[in-house]
Amino acid sequence: MSHNGEGAAYDVGVIGGGVVACAVGKTLATNGKKVIIFRFRYKTYCEELNFLDKNKYPDKEETDGYDDNSIHIVVRIGKRLGGYARVIFPREGTLPIFEHFDVLKEKDMEHACEISRFMISKVFRNNHETRRGVFGLLVEEILEAAKENHIKVTYAAVEEWLLKSLVKRKYNFQEIGDGKHHMGAVTYPTKLKIV
Description:
By secondary structure, the chain is an alpha+beta fold. 28% of the residues lie in helices and 31% in strands.
C-alpha cells in the first residue's frame, strides 16, 4: 500500500504564536529533517522521560525499524520542534502494538495504523495554551493522515493521562486490553474507529 505524505513536507495549519504543523515524509531523510526528528525523539524519550535506554543510541538519534513504514508528523513553533508523532502502517500484516499487548487484530489490517512516539517538547509542555495547541494539531494531523490513507481503525498504546485527554477532546479511543508497564510507564492498548 502506498501512503500519502511520503516524500512531502507541507504546512497544514497555523495557530496563535506561530505554531505550524507539517508532515515530513520518509524520502526527506537526505536533507536532515529526519535527523532533527530522531534527535528530538532521543532527547525526549531517552534523556527527559527515560522511556528508552540512551546507551542503545550512541549517535543520539532514536530510530527503529518502523520509521520507514511511517508518516512523521511534526509541529514547529518558530524554528523549534514543538511536538511530534508518527503514524505506522502495517508491515507483513501487523503493527507494534500486537508485539507488546495481547489484543485482537482487525481482520482488515491493510486499513489499520498505529500512532506512536506522541510527544511534546519540554520547552512547551509547561505552557498550557501552547501545549493544548500542539496537542490538538498533532491529533488532527494524525487523523487527517489516517483518512488520506483510507484507514478505518487506528491503534495506540497510551498512558492514562493521554487517554483521558483524548476522550475529553471527543476522540473516542477505547481501551482494548489490560494496561502494563511499557515504554517507561503503565500504558493501555487502545483503538479508534475512523468514520
